Amino acid sequence: MTDDGKARTPDARLVAIGAGALLWALVTLASAAQGQVFAAYRGRPQDWWPTLGYTAAIFSVWALLTPLLLKTADALLAARLPRRAAAALWILGYPLATALHVALFVLLFRPIYGAQAPTRWAMVEPVLLANVDKAAFAYLALVAAAHLRRRLRAPTPAAAAASTPAGDDGLWIRVSGGLHRVPLAEIDWIAAAGDYAEVHAGERSLLTDRSLAALATELPGAEFARVHRGAIVRLDRVREVRRLGRGDASLLLCTGQTLRLSRRYRENVAAHLAL
Fold first, then answer.
1. What is the percentage of the chain residues whose pLDDT exceeds 90?
2. Do residues 183 and 173 touch, judged by C-beta distance below 8 A?
3. How many CA atoms lie within 13 A of 261 on its CB side?
4. Which of 59, 89, 174, 221 has the most CB atoms at less than 10 Å from its CB?
C-alpha cells in the first residue's frame, strides 16, 4: 500500500474479484430461475441445467467485460459533464456495450451454441434478440455499480473537515493530483454544472464535485447568496441591480458578468442589496 493509502493490496484485489464473481453467480441463478418461471407460465417448460448453462455463458461474458465497462464509467463520471451530455452518453453506452457483449459471446461460445449456424456471425441476431432483457439488466447493474463505487470512494464530510485547517477561510476543490484551495474572498460567483458546480474566481474557473445546493448551505450567508437555481453570487461583487419586472432582476458584477436574479431567490439578497 502507498503512503496515501489509496493503493489496493493483492488481498483486497482478490476480495474484489471474488465479490464480483459471487455477484454475477447470484445474478445468473436469479435470471435462470426467472426464465424457468416464464417458460412454465407459457406452457413450454425448459430443462433446468441447459437453461442454467446458457444463462451462465451469457453473464460470464458480462463478468469479463466488467473491468473495462467500470473503468469507462469511472472516466465518464470523472469528466463531470453537464447532465444532458452525460445522460446521452449513458444511453449510447447501452447499445455499444450490448454489441460488444454479443460479439464476444459469439467468439467464445460458437462451438457450444452455434454449431448449426452456417457462419459465426449468423449467431448474432438470435443471441441479440434472445438476450435484450438480460443485456439491459446487466448494463443498468454496471452503471449502478459505477455510481455506487464513486460515492463510496468520495471523502466523508468528517474527512473533508479534518483535512481543512481550523479557521481556514477557503473552499477546497478536488482536482487531479489532490486538492486546490480557493480563498472565499477571491470567489466572484458559482454556476451549476449538472450535478456539480463551477467556481469562478477572477480569470480562473474550477469544477468542484459538490452540487450548487450543497454549496449554498456551506458558504457563509453574510457573503454569498443563491440568486438563481443555477447561480450563487458573492454579494460584494454585485455592482448594479437592474429590475426586469415581476420580481426578477439582473445583477451586474464587478467582473462585467451579468447574472439573473430570480424572484424565487429575491429574499436571499434583499437585505444586502436594498431591494
1. 26
2. no
3. 26
4. 59
- Please check whether residue 215 is in contact with residue 190, taking contact to mean a CB–CB distance below 8 angstroms: yes
Residue showing cell 425448459: 46
Say if residue 33 is exposed, middle or buried (CB neighbours under 10 Å; 0-12, 13-18, 19+): middle
Give the pLDDT score at 269.
82
Residues 105, 135 contacting (CB under 8 angstroms): no
Rank 12-26, 65-79, 87-101, 117-131 by mean pLDDT and report only the highest: 87-101
- Span of 60-69, 87-96, 145-154, 245-254 with lowest mean pLDDT: 145-154
Pairing of strands 170-175, 204-208: unpaired
Which of 232, 231, 230, 250 is closest to 240 using CA atoms? 250
Cell digits for 236?
460584494
Amino acid at 29: L
Cell (9 digits) for 57: 455463458
Phi then psi for 154, rounded to 5 degrees? -65, 140
- Cβ atoms of 140 and 73 within 8 Å: the answer is no
Chain centroid, CA 212 distance in Å:
16
The CATH topology of domain 166-273 is OB fold (Dihydrolipoamide Acetyltransferase, E2P) (2.40.50)
DSSP state of 125: H
List of residues 6+ apart from 254 with CB closer than 8 A: 188, 237, 238, 239
pTM over 0.70: no
CB 55 within 8 A of CB 35: yes
Q: Tell me what pLDDT residue 175 has.
A: 66
Residue 66: count of CB within 10 angstroms of its CB: 19
The residue behind cell 443471441 is 127
